[in-house]
Each structure stands twice: as C-alpha cells, then as structure tokens.
Design brief:
The protein has one domain: TIM Barrel, CATH 3.20.20. It has 249 residues and is an alpha/beta fold. The longest helix has 24 residues. It has an 8-stranded parallel beta barrel, surrounded by 5 helices. The protein is globular, with a radius of gyration of 16 Å. The relative contact order is 0.21.
Length: 249
C-alpha cells in the first residue's frame, strides 16, 4: 500500500444531528482545521446525495481538502470509504478506506489505503455498539494492521486525541463531537491542535530514540489554505508531505 492517507481530525457527517445544518458544521470544522470529510447520508436518494457532495467539495475546495464518499460510488470524485462487509476486492479508486473492527477484518485488507477501527470508546451515535476497544485494543490493532488506522468512536476530547496518537493511530475520525458542537470551528481547532501537539511530541521523542515515529506520512502542522492535500474536485491523491513518520460507513 502506497501513498498518504487521511490524518489529523477526520469529520464524519450526519445531517440528522448536525446543529444548525450540515453545511454549517462542515464549514466550521474546515475553518477549524479539518481537511478530510467522509460523506455518509446513505439514506438519501442518489441525486440528493450527489448534490450534497458537490456542495461539500465546494466548502473544502479553498483549503484543498478531500471529500471521501461512504460506499463504493465516489459521486464524481475518486475517494471512497467502504464497509467491512464489502465489496471485495475494493474498487480501484485513488483513495480507498474501509471500516474495520477486528484483526480478522484488518487481515482482509488488500489495496485499501487506510482503515477506521471502532469503537475505541462508547459512542453516543451508536449507543451499545461495541464492546469498546479502549486504548490498549486500538494499539493492538495498529500493530496488526497492514494499513494506517483512524481511531473512530467516542473521540470527543483533546486527551482522547492524544491517547489515539500515542497508540499509533494516523488520525481520529469524529462524528458526534463536531456534528453536535455549538461552535464546530472551535471544537475542530481544539481537537486538531491536540493532534498536532501529540504528533510533534512523538516525532521529537523519535529523534531522541525513545519511541517509534508515527507509521504514516504526517506533518505536525494543521493544514492551511494552499495545503498539498488535493481533492478540489475529489480527484487526485494527496501530495507528499515533509515529515515521515470509523461506524461501518
């Protein structure tokens, strides 16, 4: 598996709980540093969902952000996130992720570029779903995975973001904490800053030989306008960065 993958704070959409409307939440999260958004809303008719994809890509365009579409059809882009159940083999899009929950599911990965693992903590979005992996379980899956992992489920605080980075996650996938936020920009900025700080500390320790560097290509800065993460229209792979180092959608 090659290429860079989603990292930092990755936003998962849910228009039914988005405070003030989905586009408002996405715009606020992007203003707060989010550069990767996974469009869910799989209950919508295709035409409505495709139109929503256009709208969200427009929000991400000014910061070179990436819209990933849950399901095998990228809706005009080239980035998808697949459920654990299939399809197998994955479609040959430029960016493909998959939802996983166990070592057995991770072992089925082939050409996927990344996976989410969940639930790390109990989640308000899917109460009773689990049991939760907790940090130790997340770390075990990171070590077993052939692809970089995003930690999904119940991630709401800076301390949880830090714990996920310390366990080896390439990023955190967040739904409820951002969808329900009174100020999604502030919440996204807080979580993104925690990610940057945790990655920076990990890189510093790595240079002193005290721990491993993150497994995926990460840059310890919050992406800004003009970032090299390209998906202005949903096409194109992210470009190389300078440092080396959800549930079922």
């Amino acid at each position: 598996m090659t290429g860079l993958v989603p990292s930092g704070v990755v936003l998962l959409t849910d228009r039914l709980v988005a405070r003030g409307g989905l586009e408002r939440v996405v715009a606020g999260a992007v203003a707060g540093g989010v550069r990767w958004v996974v469009l869910r809303e799989k209950d919508l008719p295709r035409a409505e969902r495709a139109a929503l994809a256009v709208d969200l890509r427009a929000i991400l365009a000014d910061v070179d952000g990436t819209l990933i579409v849950a399901g095998p059809e990228p809706l005009g882009g080239d980035a998808v996130h697949l459920p654990a159940a299939g399809p197998y083999p994955p479609p040959p899009h430029q960016l493909v992720g998959r939802s996983c929950h166990s070592v057995a599911e991770l072992n089925r990965l082939t050409t996927e570029h990344y996976a989410t693992v969940s639930p790390v903590w109990p989640t308000k979005s899917k109460p009773g779903y689990g049991p939760p992996l907790n940090v130790a379980g997340l770390g075990s899956l990171v070590r077993a995975s052939p692809a970089p992992l995003l930690a999904l489920g119940g991630v709401e605080t800076p301390e949880q973001v830090t714990a996920c980075v310390d366990a080896g996650a390439a990023g955190v996938a967040v739904l409820g904490a951002l969808m329900r936020a009174e100020d999604p920009e502030e919440t996204a900025a807080t979580l993104s800053s925690a990610f940057v700080k945790a990655v920076t500390q990990k890189l510093v320790k790595s240079r002193h030989g005290r721990t491993e560097a993150p497994r995926s290509g990460l840059r310890p800065t919050v992406p800004t306008q003009g970032s090299s993460l390209t998906a202005r229209s949903g096409h194109g792979r992210p470009q190389p960065q300078s440092a080396t180092t959800e549930e079922s959608q």
